[in-house]
Design brief:
alpha+beta, 4-stranded antiparallel beta sheet, 17% helix, single chain, 382 residues, 4-stranded mixed beta sheet, 6 helices
């Protein structure tokens, strides 16, 4: 059984009826729900589920298709989970002349902001239409359905794609796996936005568990000095159900791209993580790391005290590309994941580093990422 956001106790309903002389009505309603046993794009990836809700609004059985609906479960995590795929920021389903033969239900998706791929969003919207049709029939109304969609030519805004780091990181830190299938680790999400002449733009969507918030930072970093030359921070702590990276990008992409233009950085997120050995001309190089740890009695565990990253050349020797010291950081491990080939001829690379922090209450632990610039041609010592 599903619970809608309209939750009234029996005494409250009786009191409201006696004071206001109005009546709450029960409605049957259909909503699209993801099948947990299938991928969203599979044939049975979405199911229509019938629920019961109570409301004083006459057309609640129509507009309710987009409301938050939480699953009724003995599991605290599942009980707090919104299962309604139609609960998308900007999507509206509204009835005009409800209860009359001239009734029209409008499904308006022109103001949607979501992280769904176009194919996924289109499938969800088709199920929203099916759910609305079933709801109208179930409640014995005769309403025509009108759809308003964004014209294809108006959907030109390109959204950055996350850099796929998790598979590599999960493998490197496998001994710290929580054993929870749905969450072996918690992790930040890393987006490359563009690069030009030593300057790289990227964004990090931070894992904020256990706080209920969205936290995204955008950076422009000088990979010669590793200095952050520009930074923008976005935080949202209230009503975050409809806030995500895509909605953030809709609102802030102009600010980010304007700053990128100041450094002549064009939008480009076609980079991918390289895990083999880097090469420069006829030279083969190797990335390695070394950590020192300190035991903390109160935690019964070792945390990283210092970390050094090295780049070795068969022809030129070795150099340190980064060193850091930590105190009370709760950092379990710091390892190199790989690198990005950011320049033609591979004269300079961007090294991607993963930091594994102890989870708030233990596993699942939290993965964060950082970037270190490294020249493949200078700075080596034998």
């Amino acid at each position: 059984m599903f619970l809608s956001k309209w939750k009234f106790s029996i005494p409250f309903i009786i009191l409201s009826q006696s004071l206001l002389a109005s009546h709450a009505s029960f409605f049957s309603l259909y909503i699209p729900v993801a099948n947990p046993q299938a991928d969203l794009m599979e044939k049975d990836g979405i199911e229509l589920r019938k629920i019961l809700l109570s409301s004083y609004n006459m057309d609640a059985d129509i507009s309710g298709v987009t409301w938050v609906h939480n699953v009724n479960s003995s599991d605290d995590i599942l009980r707090a989970k919104n299962v309604n795929l139609a609960n998308i920021k900007g999507l509206t389903v509204e009835a005009k002349n409800y209860g009359d033969k001239s009734c029209v239900v409008t499904i308006d998706s022109t103001k949607i902001t979501s992280n769904y791929k176009d194919s996924e969003l289109n499938k969800i919207l088709s199920y929203v239409k099916q759910a609305t049709k079933r709801t109208i029939k179930e409640n014995h109304h005769q309403c025509k359905i009108k759809e308003i969609k964004i014209p294809k030519e108006a959907t030109s805004l390109k959204y950055p794609k996350p850099l796929n780091l998790e598979k590599r990181a999960f493998n490197i830190f496998s001994s710290y796996n929580s054993g929870i299938q749905e969450a072996p680790f918690l992790h930040d999400t890393f987006y490359i936005l563009g690069y030009n002449k030593g300057k790289i733009a990227y964004a990090i969507e931070y894992e904020t568990d256990p706080r209920d918030m969205v936290h995204i930072e955008t950076f422009i970093q000088d990979l010669i000095t590793d200095e952050i030359v520009w930074r923008d921070e976005f935080k949202k702590e209230d009503n975050i159900t409809d806030v995500n990276f895509k909605s953030f990008w809709n609102e802030h992409h102009q600010t980010v791209t304007n700053s990128m233009r100041q450094y002549n950085i064009a939008s480009d997120n076609l980079f991918s993580l390289q895990t083999d050995e880097p090469h420069y001309h006829n030279d083969t190089l190797k990335l390695t790391s070394k950590t020192e740890k300190e035991y903390y009695k109160d935690w019964g565990i070792q945390f990283v005290k210092s970390s050094t990253l090295y780049l070795s050349s068969k022809q030129k020797g070795q150099k340190t590309i980064d060193t850091k010291s930590y105190k009370d950081s709760h950092l379990l491990e710091r390892e190199i994941l790989g690198f990005l080939n950011i320049e033609k001829g591979n004269k300079r690379i961007a090294v991607i580093v993963a930091n594994l922090y102890r989870g708030w209450e233990g596993p699942p632990h939290v993965l964060g990422y950082e970037m270190i610039g490294a020249s493949l041609s200078i700075g080596f010592k034998k």
